[in-house]
Amino acid sequence: MLEKKVELEGLKVVEIEKCKSDIKKMREEMAARNTRINCPCKYSFLDENKKLTPRRDVPSYPKYMLSQETIEALRKPTFDVWLWEPNEMLSCLEHMYHDLGLVKDFNINPITLKRWLLCIHDNYRNNPFHNFRHCFCVTQMMYSMISLCSLQEKFSQIDILILMTAAVCHDLDHPGYNNTYQINARTELAVRYNDISPLENHHCAVAFQIIAQPECNILSSVDQEQFKRIRQGIITLILATDMARHAEILDSFKEKMEKFDYSNEEHVTCLKMVLIKCCDISNEVRPMEVAEPWVDCLLEEYFMQSDREKSEGLPVAPFMDRDKVTKPTAQIGFLKFVLIPMFEIVTKLFPEVEEVMLQPLWESRDRYEELKQIDDAMKENCAAKHHGTLQYMATMTEKN
Ligand SMILES: [Zn+2]
């Protein structure tokens, strides 16, 4: 009898522990859901039955006439991405697909294009950085590079469609916490993708979940073979945006650059990977007034993550720690060791990139170095004052 009682008690303890962990899990899920914008079409792996139709349909999607001035400006990295409402950004994206001849060449239904874009918008979350405006920036930079480097003369229209569509979809449903967090916190995404680029795999999966909806399928007119190529191309490009693979991708590109060959498919794929990487982290290419607010947005997202990591007892990366990072220190390293070297290699293939994209990067690096010097001088001054006060207090104490 006693043995049975002990066994039963033991089972109860196990059950209580299980309930506790279930409650914890449910709390986390609820918190995760509450951070999303309330949108019936929000795609979630937890809710497989939910449809991916846009929350508004096309008739209520206001028509924006883009002025000739806007249309011209849209082709350049100097375009001010902060001036526009989501609906206006949607119209700009729509314009790019028409202007590049993608609507015509792939027989995209113009209404489907509008619906697809609406659904894309609805599936970006309201994060400080990884939001729909970031998606717009990356795509607009891609559009600028296509124009600046005359990529339509070098690439097939399929490649142009892959570049643009991968840019539009590359951060879909980003939760605002990076891969390191996903892996360390053992989130659902990390478990699903076995710690291998969980976020990028998710962005890509959501992209094709959207395409799978007939009313949003911009690829409904392409044949099976073309669809396969486009799908593979988009997957490769979105997965290439994982910065953990930066060195690997750049090394492979450098190797091919020694004798770059546009008729070699591997070479072209590698170039496309570098192009989307360039656009993804291209904020500093933009004029200072446009670029600088993005640094604050990124730090806000980083601090949100590091605060959460601290509270959950997870490791914190120094570059995300609000006690360790400042705007200039964050930017100088990134510009010197990531951005500038990458754009320098691209310049070898496209000399026109130097003046339009590299020059602003050099200027930005110099500006942040100046700002850092001012920061350092102020800190030193502060320390000296602090030291002086201590000395003064010591002498006063001695006198007393
Ligand atoms: Zn991105």
TrEMBL record:
<feature type="binding site">
    <location>
        <position position="171"/>
    </location>
    <ligand>
        <name>Zn(2+) 2</name>
    </ligand>
</feature>
<keyword id="KW-0479">Metal-binding</keyword>
<feature type="binding site">
    <location>
        <position position="171"/>
    </location>
    <ligand>
        <name>Zn(2+) 1</name>
    </ligand>
</feature>
<feature type="binding site">
    <location>
        <begin position="130"/>
        <end position="134"/>
    </location>
    <ligand>
        <name>AMP</name>
    </ligand>
</feature>
<protein>
    <recommendedName>
        <fullName>High affinity cGMP-specific 3',5'-cyclic phosphodiesterase 9A</fullName>
        <ecNumber>3.1.4.35</ecNumber>
    </recommendedName>
</protein>
<comment type="function">
    <text>Specifically hydrolyzes the second messenger cGMP, which is a key regulator of many important physiological processes. Highly specific: compared to other members of the cyclic nucleotide phosphodiesterase family, has the highest affinity and selectivity for cGMP. Specifically regulates natriuretic-peptide-dependent cGMP signaling in heart, acting as a regulator of cardiac hypertrophy in myocytes and muscle. Does not regulate nitric oxide-dependent cGMP in heart.</text>
</comment>
<feature type="domain" description="PDEase">
    <location>
        <begin position="54"/>
        <end position="375"/>
    </location>
</feature>
<feature type="binding site">
    <location>
        <position position="170"/>
    </location>
    <ligand>
        <name>Zn(2+) 1</name>
    </ligand>
</feature>
<dbReference type="InterPro" id="IPR002073">
    <property type="entry name" value="PDEase_catalytic_dom"/>
</dbReference>
<feature type="binding site">
    <location>
        <position position="331"/>
    </location>
    <ligand>
        <name>AMP</name>
    </ligand>
</feature>
<dbReference type="InterPro" id="IPR003607">
    <property type="entry name" value="HD/PDEase_dom"/>
</dbReference>
<feature type="binding site">
    <location>
        <position position="171"/>
    </location>
    <ligand>
        <name>AMP</name>
    </ligand>
</feature>
<dbReference type="GO" id="GO:0046872">
    <property type="term" value="F:metal ion binding"/>
</dbReference>
<comment type="similarity">
    <text>Belongs to the cyclic nucleotide phosphodiesterase family. PDE9 subfamily.</text>
</comment>
<dbReference type="InterPro" id="IPR036971">
    <property type="entry name" value="PDEase_catalytic_dom_sf"/>
</dbReference>
<comment type="pathway">
    <text>Purine metabolism; 3',5'-cyclic GMP degradation; GMP from 3',5'-cyclic GMP: step 1/1.</text>
</comment>
<keyword id="KW-0378">Hydrolase</keyword>
<feature type="binding site">
    <location>
        <position position="280"/>
    </location>
    <ligand>
        <name>Zn(2+) 1</name>
    </ligand>
</feature>
<feature type="active site" description="Proton donor">
    <location>
        <position position="130"/>
    </location>
</feature>
<feature type="binding site">
    <location>
        <position position="134"/>
    </location>
    <ligand>
        <name>Zn(2+) 1</name>
    </ligand>
</feature>
<dbReference type="InterPro" id="IPR023088">
    <property type="entry name" value="PDEase"/>
</dbReference>
<feature type="binding site">
    <location>
        <position position="280"/>
    </location>
    <ligand>
        <name>AMP</name>
    </ligand>
</feature>
<dbReference type="Pfam" id="PF00233">
    <property type="entry name" value="PDEase_I"/>
</dbReference>
<dbReference type="GO" id="GO:0007165">
    <property type="term" value="P:signal transduction"/>
</dbReference>
<dbReference type="InterPro" id="IPR023174">
    <property type="entry name" value="PDEase_CS"/>
</dbReference>
<keyword id="KW-0140">cGMP</keyword>
<dbReference type="GO" id="GO:0047555">
    <property type="term" value="F:3',5'-cyclic-GMP phosphodiesterase activity"/>
</dbReference>
